[in-house]
Specification:
Helix content is 42%, strand content 10%. By secondary structure, the protein is α+β, with helices and mostly antiparallel strands. Helix 1 runs antiparallel to helix 3. About 2% of the residues have low confidence.
């Protein structure tokens, strides 16, 4: 019987060993001719026959059922990933319960100790810088009002002195230009007073020019009776309202 199996094994080995010679050549031909690979090809049928003819029947005989395992003393171990196996008592043949093998999960890494943070309020001195607009006081330039006679563009003696003072101020402030405004009282027609105010402004401009003030620095305008200083119908109030005023227009 054994010799028959050996003959079958040799036939299979010869068959499988000769098979690579009939295959088409490829890039793995060198590895196929390796002696160890050839030996593996030759031993494979023998091992296959031994497994199915000898080892598997013997294993079935000793462990087909649980009583058979207990009788032959076969103590298999469960697969690593199997569920826990129950323990059975089959009489005198006592056996040690199988040690339960379970996958133990890796213990989690110890957590770092929690850091205690203490918040301490510390007073902080804040410096607040506030921009304050700088107030620069500019010298006020005051020109006296120039007086005139009633219903006339002729200067009074006081008026001539006031024009002289205005000329001195303009010489000191050579970068200023001025508007000479002519005013009248409320006596007479409005159109007439408008023209009278213009004549008074031009009279003062001519006087200033005669005292050395450049005409390019001056201009004449008339406001007539529209802006009285004193709104009263008395002789002295009218005398105050008959005037010429200087308005600073700007630097040249």
């Amino acid at each position: 019987m054994i010799s028959r199996f050996l003959v079958i094994g040799l036939i299979c080995a010869a068959t499988f060993g000769a098979k690579p010679s009939f295959a088409a050549p490829d890039e793995y031909d060198d590895s196929q001719s390796n002696p160890f690979r050839i030996a593996a090809y030759l031993m494979y049928p023998v091992g296959w026959l031994a497994e199915w003819i000898v080892f598997r029947p013997f294993h079935f005989m000793v462990s087909a059922t649980e009583p058979q395992e207990a009788f032959f003393g076969h103590r298999p171990h469960p697969p690593v990933l199997a569920e826990p196996q129950p323990w059975h008592d089959y009489g005198p043949a006592q056996r040690t319960p199988l040690k339960q093998t379970t996958m133990q999960s890796q213990a989690p890494a110890p957590l770092a100790p929690q850091e205690t943070v203490k918040v301490v309020e510390v007073p902080v001195e804040k410096i607040v810088v506030k921009e304050v607009p700088r107030v620069v006081e500019v010298e006020k330039i005051i020109f006296p009002a120039v007086a005139f006679r009633f219903d006339s563009a002729d200067l009074t003696e006081l008026g001539k002195g006031q024009v002289y003072l205005a000329a001195q101020r303009l010489k000191e402030k050579a970068d200023l230009t001025v508007v000479i405004e002519g005013h009248t009282d409320t006596v007479g027609n409005g159109d007439y007073n408008q023209r009278l105010g213009q004549r008074r402004a031009e009279t003062v401009m001519s006087e200033l020019s005669a005292q050395g003030i450049d005409r390019g620095r001056m201009s004449a305008a008339s406001l007539g009776e529209s802006k009285p200083v004193i709104d009263q119908e008395t002789q002295w109030a009218r005398a105050v309202n008959r005037r010429v005023e200087f308005q600073v227009k700007g630097a040249r």
